[in-house]
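wait is this the right file?? whatever heres the structure
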């Protein structure tokens, strides 16, 4: 039988330990698939290997995590002795390429060859740290790091690579640098070889020459002897994988040898032997007196299978890890030899090529014993994750650390490089690096605190922007910016340096004060509600959804959740939630088919009578929205909200609804989210402001109608529901971004709140739009003006402030000639949802509630929408939704109890999964799952139903220190809510 080259590894199939196969870490389903494949296609004598122990453990542990669990931010700290550091390397920062007797390195030769490096950049001067190391020491002191990882320049110490060429000025330089670090209580972490090989040694074939083993050992011996009284942490090589594969296989880095078939394996063989010899030299000659650590800094990305249920993809990811990380870690940390996966793969291909022996060299038993165990700690450089494509995925770091723990016997680990590059045209404002550090260090914290990985230190790459190899000075990894065009190479801390300093000072991420929970209750009579909208649960949107490509998956609201025919079922859901109110909207075209009072559809009115009566019978009070975006198509055909006749049409429509339902409905919302009606639903240009103008006047007329005609006998309240995100400045130290955040709020919440509560648009909005309109060649402002009479009629048309809120954005100034001049991004540490625009940012909720209080005279506030979406396969255990409501409601409680915000009620969005506008049924906000593939459209409760019902039953958050409260016993098992942290570990 032909030997099949399938991607599964291992010499034999050994059943994992345990009483039953189904209890194995590998998982019974996947294990069975692999076993059957092997039994069917592979002879027993074939060289077969199952995925490694590390891979089995990690993929079994993490592959079934939800996106919420994967990205959940972990607050906590590292041990007090955790080693915080920052790094650099000699060729990248020192400069002084021929100063004081230094010999040329192969990188000097390479960069002096035209066309090799972007823009012709070289390391001749670089950061000039050879002459400015005192400035580097100052930066290190300011950061408060405990360690500085640097590399020694071999040709600066031995200009021709041999001890006989010793350059004392080079020795003096490193003595001054090391002494300076020690004086400031900064531990030097010294890399002996970070790629800058003396050119004379490259001239004898460099690392492809076995003589390099002894030559390197002599160099290491000198360094141990000379600096080892102060240096207690040594790394022999930095990223041997890059030396062997990128330098001798791909040929992209010096010495630019393109011989992928054999040279990398010979080079790696020599590197491993050279490392082992240097380790033994230290062990035998210096360890007793110097008591330092010796290791090697290996590099690896995390490789994630596209689908952990497909054996070939699991095997391919494992193979990639073994070829990159295992190539060097396996011999040193495992058994003195290369991984079986690597031996099998290279050996198999060598055999197919007709070679007499494998291209991968072999170690003798003596060599294996000599190499195995030659590292006191595990030093790791890691930057990203690979799946289908290279991408920054912080969670891969946690998985990689777990893989090392399981694969290599839980060694002590130091992350010796981790960072991200940005374009050097971006100087000190580097949000991408800030997000990177926050997310990656947090994943390291998870590995330490949640997974018991023995992580001892973290070293950020790098201290300062420097020569970035083939990219020259076009990108920078630094926490400090350097102006490479200035002869003095001035250093300026970036925002990321301040962040890293804060992380070090706090020793991780202690729970922010603003995230700490508060215990207490909302006021008596608090309105607890849940919301829907007519078109989304029942049926301008009919025409829109019936147009191809408008809605995801061609979904429409033709049936939606069929709430038109399922009133009793919907009321039963409301009773399970224990809400005392229900917010729904009336369908304008259901009552007035052509939008006017020429024809009143009594059947439509009867439907709402039945709904309201059913609610009242269940002691649930209706909150009715008159307009939730489903404009009669007949009115849209004549211009919709751009036609000012719609003001009267809306008033007439409101009159019909008030007169028919007002004796039973005491809470009215005129218009839902006018910002979205105007800004998203209108044509660009002037149209949004005309629409917004008409919406405000239409609301005012409906309010006055109720106030003048119905309030005395019906006794209800009327308001408008305004939506807004909270805006934080992207750079809180930059006035332009602070101003941009304010503009964002003025243009979103203030567009409609300012006229309703203050009588007119804000001066900021009026001035901004006028200036930009005139600058764009328009004769007048795009923003219409209210007459004095209109200002008087609009001001005060509110009985409360209706408010929809979901998320927070980071605002930055844009100099483009658009109206707002605001750019928006999200912090990557924020939890995602099923909606790209919705990130979980609870503190912003409290801040914007305070904004409303301070800006609009402390009105009574009813939160009329707040919630979170999900996508993908349905999981009724919706812990992300529970977390969202728990966090946001707690912030609302803080606003009420601590800040004195007059919050009267809270409405969750939404009762059930429904048509989410352009997203169709893909985005699910509901407490109840609606199975749209079942004609009966069954409503199935998610776990969040019980949580929200418990919250309502308790009217807030009972203090857990007082013991379990009777309000929390909704379920037979007693206490309902499991601590959220335990759900995400």
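ok assuming it is, sequence goes like this
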């Amino acid at each position: 039988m032909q030997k099949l080259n399938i991607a599964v590894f291992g010499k034999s199939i050994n059943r994992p330990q345990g009483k039953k196969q189904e209890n194995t870490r590998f998982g019974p389903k996947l294990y069975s698939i692999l076993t059957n494949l092997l039994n069917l296609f592979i002879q027993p004598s074939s060289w077969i290997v199952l995925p490694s122990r590390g891979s089995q453990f990690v993929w079994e542990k993490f592959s079934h995590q939800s996106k919420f669990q994967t990205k959940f931010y972990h607050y906590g700290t590292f041990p007090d002795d955790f080693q915080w550091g920052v790094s650099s390397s000699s060729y990248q920062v020192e400069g002084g390429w021929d100063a004081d007797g230094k010999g040329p390195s192969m990188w000097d030769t390479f960069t002096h060859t035209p066309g090799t490096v972007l823009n012709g950049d070289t390391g001749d001067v670089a950061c000039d740290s050879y002459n400015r190391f005192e400035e580097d020491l100052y930066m290190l002191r300011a950061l408060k790091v405990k360690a500085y990882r640097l590399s020694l320049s071999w040709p600066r110490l031995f200009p021709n690579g041999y001890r006989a060429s010793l350059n004392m000025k080079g020795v003096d330089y490193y003595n001054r640098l090391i002494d300076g670090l020690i004086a400031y209580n900064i531990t030097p972490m010294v890399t002996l070889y970070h790629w800058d090989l003396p050119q004379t040694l490259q001239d004898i074939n460099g690392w492809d020459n076995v003589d390099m083993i002894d030559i390197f050992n002599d160099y290491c011996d000198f360094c141990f002897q000379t600096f080892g009284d102060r240096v207690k942490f040594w790394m022999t090589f930095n990223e041997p994988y890059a030396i062997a594969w990128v330098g001798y296989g791909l040929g992209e880095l010096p010495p630019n040898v393109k011989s992928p078939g054999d040279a990398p394996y010979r080079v790696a063989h020599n590197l491993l032997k050279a490392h082992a010899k240097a380790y033994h030299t230290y062990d035998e000659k210096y360890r007793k007196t110097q008591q330092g650590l010796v290791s090697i800094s290996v590099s690896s990305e995390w490789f994630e299978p596209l689908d952990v249920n497909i054996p070939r993809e699991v095997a391919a990811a494992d193979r990639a890890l073994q070829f990159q990380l295992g190539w060097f870690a396996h011999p040193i940390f495992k058994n003195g030899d290369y991984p079986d996966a690597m031996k099998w793969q290279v050996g198999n291909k060598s055999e197919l090529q007709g070679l007499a022996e494998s291209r991968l060299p072999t170690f003798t038993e003596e060599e294996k014993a000599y190499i195995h165990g030659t590292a006191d700690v595990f030093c790791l450089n890691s930057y990203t994750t690979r799946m289908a494509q290279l991408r920054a995925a912080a969670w891969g770091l946690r998985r990689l650390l777990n893989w090392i723990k399981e694969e290599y016997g839980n060694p002590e680990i130091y992350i010796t490089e981790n960072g991200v590059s940005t374009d050097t045209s971006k100087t000190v404002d580097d949000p991408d690096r800030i997000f990177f550090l926050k997310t990656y260090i947090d994943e390291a914290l998870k590995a330490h605190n949640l997974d018991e990985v023995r992580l001892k230190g973290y070293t950020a790459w790098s201290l300062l922007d420097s020569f970035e190899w083939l990219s020259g000075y076009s990108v920078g990894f630094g926490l400090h910016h350097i102006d490479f065009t200035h002869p003095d190479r001035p250093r300026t801390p970036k925002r990321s340096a301040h962040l890293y300093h804060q992380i070090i000072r706090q020793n991780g991420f202690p729970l922010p004060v603003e995230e700490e929970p508060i215990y207490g209750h909302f006021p008596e009579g608090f309105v607890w509600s849940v919301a829907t909208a007519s078109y989304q649960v029942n049926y301008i949107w009919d025409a829109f959804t019936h147009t191809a490509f408008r809605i995801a998956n061609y979904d429409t609201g033709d049936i939606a959740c069929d709430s038109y025919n399922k009133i009793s079922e919907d009321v039963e859901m409301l009773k399970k939630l224990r809400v005392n109110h229900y917010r729904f909207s009336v369908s304008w075209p259901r009552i007035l088919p052509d939008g006017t009072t020429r024809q009143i559809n009594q059947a439509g009115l009867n439907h709402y009578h039945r709904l309201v009566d059913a609610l009242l019978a269940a002691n649930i009070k209706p909150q009715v929205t008159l307009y939730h975006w489903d404009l009669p198509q007949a009115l849209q055909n004549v211009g919709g909200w751009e036609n000012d006749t719609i003001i009267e049409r809306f008033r007439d429509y409101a009159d019909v609804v008030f007169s028919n339902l007002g004796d039973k409905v005491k809470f009215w919302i005129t218009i839902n989210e006018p910002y979205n009606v105007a800004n998203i639903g209108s044509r660009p240009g002037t149209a949004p402001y005309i629409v917004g103008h008409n919406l405000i006047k239409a609301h005012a007329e409906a309010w006055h109608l109720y106030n003048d005609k119905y309030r005395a006998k019906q006794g209800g309240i009327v308001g408008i529901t305004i939506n807004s995100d909270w805006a934080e400045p992207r750079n809180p130290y930059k006035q332009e971004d602070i101003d941009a955040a304010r503009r964002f709020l003025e243009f979103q919440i203030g567009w409609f709140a300012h006229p309703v509560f203050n009588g007119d648009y804000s001066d900021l909005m009026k001035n901004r739009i006028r200036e930009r309109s005139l600058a764009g060649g328009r004769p007048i402002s795009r923003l219409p003006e209210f007459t004095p009479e209109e200002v008087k009629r609009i001001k005060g048309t509110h009985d409360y402030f209706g408010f929809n809120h979901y998320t927070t954005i980071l605002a930055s100034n844009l100099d483009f000639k658009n109206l707002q001049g605001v750019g928006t991004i999200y912090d990557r540490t924020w939890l995602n949802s099923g909606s790209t625009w919705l990130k979980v940012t609870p503190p912003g909720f409290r801040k914007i509630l305070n904004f409303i209080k301070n800006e609009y005279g402390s009105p009574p506030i009813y939160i009329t929408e707040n919630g979170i979406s999900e996508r993908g396969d349905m999981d009724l255990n919706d812990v992300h939704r529970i977390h969202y409501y728990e966090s946001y409601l707690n912030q609302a409680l803080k606003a009420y109890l601590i800040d004195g915000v007059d919050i009267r009620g809270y409405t969750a969005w939404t009762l059930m999964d429904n048509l989410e506008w352009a997203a169709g049924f893909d985005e699910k906000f509901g407490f109840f799952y609606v199975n749209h593939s079942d004609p009966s459209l069954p409503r199935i409760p998610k776990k969040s139903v019980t949580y929200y019902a418990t919250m309502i039953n308790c009217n807030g958050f009972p203090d857990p220190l007082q013991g379990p409260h009777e309000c929390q016993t909704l379920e037979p098992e007693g206490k309902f809510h499991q601590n959220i942290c335990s759900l995400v570990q």
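The chain has two domains: 76-511, 525-739+799-807+834-984. so i think its the right one actually
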